[in-house]
Amino acid sequence: MSKVYIGLDSHKERIVIAVSLDHGEAIVYGSCSSDIEVFLKTLRGVLKKYGLEKEDVSICYEAGPCGFTLARHLLRIGYHVDVVAPSLIPVKSGDKVKTDTRDARKLARLCRAGELTPVHIPDEADEVIRDLCRARTDAVDDQTRIKHRLTSFLLRNGHHYTGKSPWSEAHMRYLRELVLIDPIQKLILEENIQAVDRAAERVKTLEDHMQIRLEKWVRQPFVKALQAFRGFQMVAAMVVTSELGDLPRFDHPRKLMAYLGLVPSEASSGNKRHQGAITKSGNSHVRWILVEVARHYANAPKVSRDLSLRQEGLAEPVKQLSWRTQKRLYKRYVRLQMRRLHENKIKVAIARELTAFIWELAQIQKAKEPITIPIV
Predict the structure, then answer these.
(1) SS3 letters for the chain?
(2) pLDDT digits (tens, 9 = 90+) for 139-192
(3) Are strands 57-62 and 4-10 parallel, antiparallel or unpaired?
(4) Alpha carbons 60 and 67: distance in angstroms, whole number
(5) How far, in Å, are 255, 265, 339 from residue 273 at the CA level?
(6) Tens-place pLDDT, residues 288-325
(7) Fewest beta carbons within 10 Å, which of 16, 107, 134, 257?
(8) Considering only CA atoms, which of 345, 369, 363, 362 is closest in space to residue 237?
């Protein structure tokens, strides 16, 4: 039996199923509930109708808010499944009609043509760590908004903290001892102070859970090795590792740079070549972390006390790579500053090169102790 391609338009409540044979147009089989058991029953009906086995079927659907649960379940029971990147699906410029059935047929047809780009399907452990890291990022964002709200409230009422370290113990004492004229304003101040304390406690709780889960995570060796790099502590290293997952799947660092959207966009034709801003495609969380870390390489190479403690017990090639990274990126940073480029452009350029060193670290770790994680 020839290969048969099945496109799924998956939503919260319904899944539309389209089938594409070796020739002819893709046809819509029907729709069913998004409940996994109901969908599997419907899928078995598709196989029975066309006389297929699991090995004869290739299934695909778009990555979206429903996550990878369906894909992992299908892979577990022996199906071939691709979760494709929505932004890389070919679109006809004149096609102005979009429906679920059209989307399912298009996925089945493009899957048969080999024009879809699959995304990496993380295993359940990686996804749990990723959700934990993103929860910590959300908590920090909420904490920042609460602090800005409190600062704006005090500024409207003529109070401005002039100390050296905002949100330190001294600053919090200043806030608690602050006297406002109206009792209602004092109540608002106390409520905001309590909100700041709760937000700080929430961030600390999530970071404690990150530390606990790190000890049992299969990617712990890579996280520890990444902390040997300047600017990477536990949070940044875990965010990068959980978001990227199996780094050795990128066979060249340029592919990793493109995946993170750190390469310049381009519109060239004939003898004319024009490069614009970075593409900003791919994973925005990792791109944000790398740009933040890039600021550390504006300083002269140095193995500080904290960095030395993080490097204890690591292999010599990892330490040498960390030192080579510092020297290379500092030299690059200075040269770009001498060209009087904007600081943001410099940080993005440094983040792009830092990506290559992280890729090299993954190759060192793979050669030392390969990480093989089955998809479950």
Answers:
(1) CCCEEEEEEECCCEEEEEEECCCCCCEEEEEEECCHHHHHHHHHHHHHHHCCCHHHEEEEEECCCCCCHHHHHHHHCCCEEEEECHHHCCCCCCCCCCCHHHHHHHHHHHHHHCCCCECCCCCHHHHHHHHHHHHHHHHHHHHHHHHHHHHHHHHHCCCCCCCCCCCCHHHHHHHHHCCCCCHHHHHHHHHHHHHHHHHHHHHHHHHHHHHHHHHCCCCHHHHHHHCCCCCCCHHHHHHHHHHHCCHHHCCCHHHHHHHCCCCEEECCECCECCEEEECCCCCHHHHHHHHHHHHHHHCCCCCCHHHHHHCCCCCHHHHHHHHHHHHHHHHHHHHHHHCCCCHHHHHHHHHHHHHHHHHHHHHHHHHHCCCCCCCC
(2) 999 999 999 999 999 999 999 998 889 999 999 999 999 989 899 999 999 999
(3) parallel
(4) 13
(5) 21, 11, 22
(6) 999 999 999 999 999 999 999 999 999 999 999 999 99
(7) 134
(8) 362
